[in-house]
Structure formats: C-alpha cells, structure tokens
Amino acid sequence: MTEKIGFLGLGHMGGPMAANLVKAGYDVAAFDPAPAARDKAREDGATVVDTAAAAATGRDVVITMLPNGKLVLDVYADLLPAANPGTLFIDCSTIDVADAKAAADLATAAGHRALDAPVSGGVAGAAAGTLTFMVGGEAADFAAGLAVLEVMGGKVVHCGGAGVGQAAKICNNMLLGVSMVALSEALVLGEKLGLSHQSFFDVVSTASGQSWALTSYCPVPGPVPTSPANNDYQPGFATALMTKDLGLAANALRDNGVDGALGALAAEIYTRFNQDNAGRDFSAIVTDVRNRSTREGAQ
C-alpha cells in the first residue's frame, strides 16, 4: 500500500474523501485555505499542514479536489517543485479537458506522473466511499493509483489518455442535466393534468421514460425519500456545480463542432436558475419550471 498521501481541497467532497483514506490506514497530509475545513480534517485524523507545498512534500501520491482549472494549474506551480521525483498527481476536480491535459503536461515535464480522475456520486458518495472515478492517463499510472482510488470509490474506470477522464465526466453531467430538466418538465405537466407525483413515479420508473434522475434523485418530495427534494433541496449536488459542468459541456460542444442543442439549452436554463439558487440542489430546477408555468402555458 502507498503510505503517504497529500490531499488539497477539503470541501464537501474532498473532506470526506480524505477522511476515508485516513480510515483505510493512509498517512494523509491535508491542506485547505478554509480554517473550518482544516479543523474537520484534523478531527478526521489527517495531518493538517500550513501550505499547499507542504502537502506535496515527501508524499507518494498528491490528490487535488479544487473548484476550477485555473486554480488547479496555479496550485500545481507550487506543488510540482516541492514533490519528490516520480510523485503521482491525481486531480479529482471537474475542469476543462484542455486544463486537465495542461496539468498533466506540467506534471510530466517536472518528472512526475499524472491522472485526471473526476468523480460522480455527490457528497453522499464521497462520505460512503462509493464514488465513481472516471480516469484519464497512462495505463501504468492508472495501475499505480488504483488502490488509492478504490478506497474512495465503488467504481473506478480507466477511460483513456490524459484529459479523457474529464471528457467522460462532462458527457455524463451534460446528460444528467438534460435529463433533470426534461424530468422536471414532465412532472409539472403531470401536475397540470391531474397526475400525482406517486402515480407518475410508479408508472415511469418501470416504463420507457425511466432514468437515474427519477429513480434515485426524484426532484419532488415523496417517491424517493432519500432525494434532496425531501430535505428542502439541500445539496446533494449544488446548482452552482451543475451550472459549471454544463458550461464546460457547452464549451466542448462548440469547440468540437457538435450539434448539441439540448446540452447547450440545459446550460442556459441552469445559468438562469443559478442566479438566485446556486446553493440549492440542482434537482430544485423543478421549482423553476413550476414557477415559470401558468395554467394556460409557460410564460
């Protein structure tokens, strides 16, 4: 087992991920600029350090879970010179494919190894250690990092070379965003037509319209007791994060000449909703569909 891990980014996702590594017996040096995140990591058994560079010093693996690609690249400028030669850098952030490739290039140019390994599964998956990892990078590097990733995830998939893990994440979340908007519109239409939420669920969950968004994350209270809809839309997966991911997808659609009308429209819908609802779960989009609808039709 790789003994020493550096972990940077101890927020809603990174904090539980680092805690699971500690529980599995890894020596984790953790860093985050937020005092509350550092305090929680300390409670969970990690060794909290004062700088980003210190989290990479003397580590076998360095994991980052950060908000955006620019921050990843900026942090790598501090981490790479501090790390021992051959350190395996695993970036679990969700960022642009080009940024992921740039980060991998920086790491390898500095004599290290690199994987992009974004995740799916939300805060609950991070806490339970059941995340899905979509990994890009060299096969040998994937093999070297597999044991660490398996501690934090229930499924780890090697998708291809550098940046391809991010490609898988962007495609997955574009599909999820489109699915949630479509599901919300169908639910509100059902309301208008006199169909109860439970009857809608009982039919559609076993019919051709079935989806993960419905059966695992139903956006209205009742049918799926564990969904955020039953907890006043506390995330979960925040609208701000879905908006970011759909923006990445929309950029990728445009840059690669894909006729992705639904993906682009979902990005527009969530960008609008995000203005006043960034901290709510992304499934709360159903409330926006409902609020923007009238008995006679959508405004």
Give a quick summary of the entry.
With 299 residues, the protein is an alpha/beta fold. The chain has helices spanning 14-23, 35-43, 52-56, 69-82, 97-109, 122-128, 139-152, 164-192, 197-204, 212-215, 239-255, 261-277, 285-291; strands at residues 4-8, 27-31, 47-48, 61-64, 88-91, 113-116, 119-120, 131-136, 153-160.
Question: How would you describe this protein?
Answer:
- About 50% of the residues lie in helices and about 15% in strands.
- The protein is built from 13 helices and 9 strands.
- It has helices spanning about 15-25, 35-45, 50-55, 70-80, 95-110, 120-130, 140-150, 165-190, 195-205, 210-215, 240-255, 260-275, 285-290, and strands spanning about 5-10, 25-30, 45-50, 60-65, 90, 115, 120, 130-135, 155-160.
- The strands form 2 sheets. A 6-stranded parallel β-sheet has the order 3-2-1-4-5-6, with helices on both faces. Strands 7-8-9 form a 3-stranded mixed β-sheet.
- α5 (about 95-110) links the parallel β5 (about 90) and β6.
- α8 (about 165-190) packs across α11, α8 (about 165-190) packs across α12 (about 260-275) and α8 (about 165-190) runs parallel beside α13 (about 285-290).
- It is globular.
Highlighted features:
alpha/beta, globular, six-stranded parallel β-sheet, 13% strand, three-stranded mixed β-sheet, 299 residues
Q: Give helix % range.
A: 40-55%
Give me the count of strands: 9
Identify low-pLDDT runs: none
Main sheet summary = 6 strands, parallel
Mean pLDDT comes to 95
Alpha-carbon Rg, integer = 20 Å
